[in-house]
Amino acid sequence: MSLSQHSFAAVTDLFHQVSGIRLADTKRALVIGRLQKLAQDAGIDSLDRYVEHVVSGQDAAETRRVIDKLTTNETYFFREPQHFELLTELATQASRTEPFRVWSAASSSGEEAYSIAMVLASQIGARGWEVVGTDLSSAMVETARRALYPMDRIRETPLAMVKKHCLKGQGDYQGQVLVSRELRQNVRFQCANLTESLPDIGLFDVIFLRNVLIYFDAKSKPPIVKRVAANLKPGGLLFVGHAEPLAQFDTGLRTVRPAVYERA
Ligand SMILES: C[S@@+](CC[C@H](N)C(=O)[O-])C[C@H]1O[C@@H](n2cnc3c(N)ncnc32)[C@H](O)[C@@H]1O
Q: Do domains 5-70 and 81-263 have the same CATH topology?
């Protein structure tokens, strides 16, 4: 199926309005690839007509499907392990008078949030901590709640954690792992758009805002970082992806080490 320049502009404008992410012309093949299946499922055999239907704003469910499809959700357990090493230290030193709280902002399908939970469970125990995962995509939030993953996603997970927290699937679930119910009890997921005012989810000791800033232009990054960092407890730490340094932006945060910032 082909997509006219007019339709490409219309659908990427819509995506930008909702997510804050601008998809460049170089992403044209990716956009076509991702929309094709949706158009087929909707019974529309022209991508231009499909886009016209979506941008008309009359079908909120179809708009949601398009937004979900155009977001990039690549993730896996224990990605960028330096952050998990630091989290281990922080959790060890945590005061036990109030729960140690961590937010995975842009949690995608949940692997980051469950990796955090594995570290907290090993350092703090079954209780006394909480992880909140949020994402723009409702489909990703659903996947995260299901907590069922292809085996490949746990490739970087320490073996002891796999043994303790992952149940290997059998029969129809061969090749998949389910995160244990015990671990899931202290992890919750909900939708939140980082470009809008955020839900009231409280203050956190650590916030993971990783591999999402990379999709925003330079102007959009500081307000997102400030909005997210406002949810840090005093002295709390913000982790960003190692490919997303913030030093050149005015965020009001202090650099602690590469990809780690502190709320003063
Ligand atoms: C590449 S994944 C990152 C997952 C995880 N943080 C990691 O580092 O592995 C990026 C996620 O950002 C989410 N996202 C994109 N724009 C967003 C927005 N405006 N608000 C919230 N989440 C957003 C996408 O839905 C996607 O799941």
A: no
Is residue 195 in contact with ligand 1, taking CB distance under 6 Å? yes
Q: Is 194 in the pocket of ligand 1 (CB under 6 A)?
A: yes
The verdict on the CB of residue 200 being under 6 Å from ligand 1 is no
- Whole-model pTM? 0.93
Looking at 3.90.480.20, 3.40.50.150, 3.90.79.10, 3.30.300.20, the CATH number of the domain 81-263 comes to 3.40.50.150
Residue 172 has phi, psi (to 5 degrees) of -60, -20
Check if 75 has its Cβ closer than 6 Å to any atom of ligand 1. yes
**Among protein residues, the one whose CA lies closest to atom 27 of ligand 1:** 108
Most confident of 26-30, 186-190, 250-254: 186-190
Written as six digits, the tokens of 239 are 């982790």
For a mutational test of ligand 1's pocket, the pick from 22, 132, 136, 193, i.e. the residue with the most ligand atoms closer than 8 A to its C-beta, is 136
Q: Which atom of ligand 1 is nearest to the CA of 18?
A: 19
DSSP class of 79: -
Strands in the chain per DSSP E: 100-105, 129-135, 148-150, 166-168, 176-179, 187-191, 204-209, 232-240, 253-257, 260-263
Q: Is the CB of 211 under 6 A from ligand 1?
A: yes
Domain ranges of the chain: 5-70, 81-263
Chain segment 37-81, per-residue pLDDT in tens: 999 999 999 999 999 999 998 999 999 999 999 998 999 999 999
- Enter the tokens of residue 61: 């469910």
pLDDT value of position 248: 87
Task: Tell me how far apart the alpha carbons of residues 61 and 76 are, in angstroms, rounded to a whole number.
Answer: 28
Q: Which of 135, 193, 206 to probe ligand 1 with, by most ligand atoms within 8 A of CB?
A: 135
Fold of 5-70: Chemotaxis Receptor Methyltransferase Cher; domain 1 (1.10.155)
